[in-house]
Every structure is written in structure tokens, then in C-alpha cells.
Amino acid sequence: MRKPLLVVAIFLALNVSLSIAKSARKPVNTASAHLPPAAIAALQKINPEHIRADVRFLSHDLLEGRGTGQRGGDIAAEYIATQFWLDGLHAAGDNGTFFQKVPMVGITPAPETTFELDPNKGESMRLKPLDDYVAYDQTQRTSDDINADIVYVGYGVDAPEYQWDDYKGVDVRGKVLLMLVNEPTSNDPNFFKGRALTYYGRWTYKYEEAARKGALGVILIHKTEMASYPWEVVRNSNSGEKSFLKSDAPQLKATAWIQYDVARKLAQSSGMDLGKMMEDANSRSFKPVALPVKLKAHMVSKIRPFSSNNVLATLPGSDPKLKDEVVMYTAHYDHLGIRPDMAGDNIYNGARDNATGCGIVLELARVFSQAQSRPKRSILFASVTAEEQGLLGSQYLGEHPPIAAGKISLDLNFDDIPPLGEPEEVEVSGAERTNFYPTVQAMAQEFRLAIQPDSHPEAGHYYRSDHFSMARVGVPSFSVNEGMKYKHHNRDWGMQKAEEYTNKQYHQPSDEYEPSMDFAGDAVMARFGFALGWAAASQPDLIGWQRGDEFEAARKQSQR
Fold it and tell me: Are 237 and 507 in contact (CB under 8 A)?
């Protein structure tokens, strides 16, 4: 009886005026959460069992982990395109198809690769791949040799707006840079946003900045508490073939991670203490330290040019003028594929990450297409590739959108929605950065969902999913997900489940579909996302960023 009762509750909530809702509990804003009857009727048709069916298929062993540029990933894209076609949506990809081709290069480190830390004094350290280090040559050459000095640059951050510069003008051209994951720690929200990780803390930024400054390579020091995930995640995400966008931008010969214990030995061989080095990196006065150590590496790579696909479809809006603008839904369909060298279960099925998000977007496409009327703006559905490779599919989509970025009002992203039952909270981190937030608050109130702040702001989730790629080109964007409080459970239970998933299933073959999964919560997130999307597509003006936000300038640029 839970599902019918939930539908009735949502139906009643959405038909109660906000003024009545205010009288029952403390108001949070004055925005309207009203939806027209056609939207409410469509919303009620969202079915958790439809989401279950899509998750089951997309995470089946037959799809071989939906690897980027691999057969299973291509099958997933074809499946999603077929569902969009059956819904009667318009193809929004290349040449009248549902597919946007993303030109990529696959790079696989060969067994002949060697990676050695060679101090001026003492024995050299030849590292063991996957156990001690992971590394890729991004130059897209089959072979490169490295014999370069190592310079410790703290966090490797150059952030003028925070008066922070780890480089201090030091010439790092031709050097290999040793650096920490994350960013300077603080509780001050005006300094690197306090506990919340900014893009400066992401490994992608560190590689990009080092390449801009002419460095030859980067070695990141992994520490679980700082990265927010264990070494197994680094190892599994960086084993076998890794994909890169074709690019003429400067590239590094070595993008590497090393285990914390390896870094500690490296520091000792330099006559230094790693703990003190990490402590020093938290000061504005930090200066780069040239270590008496060289990286000697022979990087051998197998190169495979290929194309993967974003899957794009639109539902035209009802307003003759506003239908040229869109509200966007995104979810990535790729995962990590198969690891041939692993014994036993070596398929990374990615049931939660991110068959769940795909199932929600597919269900949204179905109910939007069946609604008796349509919102004023068009709806763009995008299931993107290569998120696990560094948000590559959404990066390409942001740089080559089928509709100009300045006409995309909002992107609502779904990524890893836990099938744990009915949530009583929702996380919409980043929504507060947009002028759409009052509507988000009002809608959450109507759905009886408490807005829960990011439970792990230090993990930098805002910069780790596909909405970030759209934000970078100015589109107001955020992900919709469950909080930690579930019906019949306390918040500690939700936190425990999240920790168990991170430690035992995230980027592991054990992230598999189970018949016991409860998709009621995924359906709630779909209904909530439907309501937000309809409201955004119906309001008079395009959504924007709050004044002073880091993406405001990109929004203004996109609308010129």
C-alpha cells in the first residue's frame, strides 16, 4: 500500500495552495509551487517499477559494465535512444539522429611501462602499477621517456580570488610536480568555500593548471580522508583503457597518483617529513620545494582513436517564442566496463552509478511525452558518455550544445540515486547559487522533503558530476538526490548506508542490481525533478546565477 499512499499524498500536496501550506509550518520563501492539472496527472504516472526495469537491464552482465568506447556502452546508448524514439521525442543529435558523436582517444598503459623515483642519495624506488601508483601519458603518443626533477607544489593551486598561489612564480616547465589532493582547509565560507570543496581541489584542475604552466607531469598523493574515497577507487578508475577527448591543448606526459605510504618514503628519501610538508601547504606563505629526486619513467601506451555517443532528444515546448529555449535533464550512462586482468567477477556493472540516473531520465521522458499539455519551453533529455573518464561526454556537450547555452534555462542532473526506500530529505547542492532556489524550496516544501545540505561538502560533489560541465558554460545547473533521512529510519542509518556503499561498492564490481532494491525513493526524486523542470520551463524568464557566483560571467558571455 505504500506506493498508492505516496501518490495520493503528493497529489494532495501539489493541489494545496502555498498560503495554506504556510499556515501549517514555517514558510521558507514566497515562491509558488503551483503546477497545472496536466503536470500533476503526468507526475502521478511515474512508476518505480519502470525505473527498476531500466536499472536491471542497463546494469546486466550482458552490457559488460557499459565501458566508454566498448560494446556494452554502445548497447546502452542504443537502448536509451530506442526508448526516446518510442516516446515520440525529437532526435537532437547529429544529422537528425539521437546521437552526438564525441571524438575520443583511448589510452592503455602497456606492461613495458616503468615508473621509478630516483633520489640523489640512496636506493631508487621502482613502483608497482596499481598497487603503488597509477599513471597515464596524455600526449596520445605510443612512447615517452621522462627523466625530470620533482618539485613539491603543495596543493598545486593558483587562485587569485583567494589570494592563494602555490607556484609563487617558480618556473616549473619541464618539471614533474608532486602535489596534494583537495585544497587548503578552512571553516571560512569566504575562503575556498570553507569545508565545501571547490574546483581547485579536483584532480582535473590540477592537471589542467600544471599543463598550462608547462609542467611535464603531475604526481598526486592519495590519502583517503582527503580524497573522500579509498585507493581502490583510484586503482579501479585508472586501470585498463582510459578515455580522453581529442584536443590540441597542452598535455602531460604523466598524470599519476601514488599511495600515501609511497609518498612518505619519497619524502624520507628527500630528508623531509610528509606530515610537515602537508602542514606547510596550508599556509599562504608556502613556496615550491625542489626535491632531490627525479622521476624516471618509460611510458608506453596503446592508442585507440574512437567515437562514443551522447544520446540527445527533445520534447518541443508549447509557446511559439519560448519553445526555442530549453530545460535540460542529464544523466551519464557509462561506467567502468570490464577489467580483463581481474580474477573472478570483473564486470563493473554500475547499477547505482549510474543506471539509476538513466532510469529516472528515461521515466521523465516517458511521462513528459504522455502529458496532455506541454510546458512553454522545450525539454532536452541528455544521457551522456564518459563521465567516469572525467566528465568528458558532458564537457563535449557543453562545448557543442544542440541549443545555444544561453538558451538553456536549467540543467537538472541525476547521478547515483540510492534505491533505499522513501526519502524524507533531498539534496540539491548548488541550487542555492541560482535565482531558481526559491522555487526549489517551495517545491520541496510541497513534497514534504527537507532540503539537506551536502552531507560531505569536503568531497566536492558539485564538481564531480555532469551538471558541472554545463555550469562551466554558464548554464544554471545542479544535481537532485536523496538526503540521508529515510522513512522508518534515522539519519545515522542513511549515513551508514552511504559509507558502506562508498567503501564496498563504489567503482567496484559489487555495484550490481539486486531484486531487493527499493526504487520508491528514485521515483520520488523523479517526481520532484519533474515538478522542478516543469516549473522552470513555464516561468517567464530564463534562470540565472546569483550575483557574484563563479559561473555568472560565463552565463553573461553565453547570452551575448
Answer: yes
Looking at the predicted structure, is the pLDDT value of residue 15 above 60? no
The answer to whether the predicted template modeling score (pTM) of the entire model surpasses 0.90 is no
CA 279/CA 272 separation, integer angstroms: 12
- Length of the chain counted residue by residue: 560
Q: 122-162, pLDDT tens digit by residue?
A: 899 999 999 999 999 999 999 999 999 999 999 999 999 99
Question: Which 3-state string (H, E, C) describes 292-316?
Answer: EEEEEEEEEEEEEEEEEEEEEEEEC
The predicted-structure confidence for 433-459, as pLDDT tens digits, reads as follows 999 999 999 999 999 999 998 877 777
Question: Is 499 within a domain?
Answer: no
Contact 353, 360 (CB under 8 A): no
As a whole number of angstroms, the distance between CA 201 and CA 199 comes to 5
Same domain, 16 and 85: yes
Cα–Cα distance, 367 to 530 (Å, whole number): 9
Residues 6+ apart with CB under 8 A from 5: none
Last residue of a domain, one of 246, 278, 303: 303
**Where residue 546 sits, what CATH number does that domain have?**
3.40.630.10
Residue 198 lies in a domain: yes
48-58 vs 356-370: helix crossing angle, rounded to 10: 130
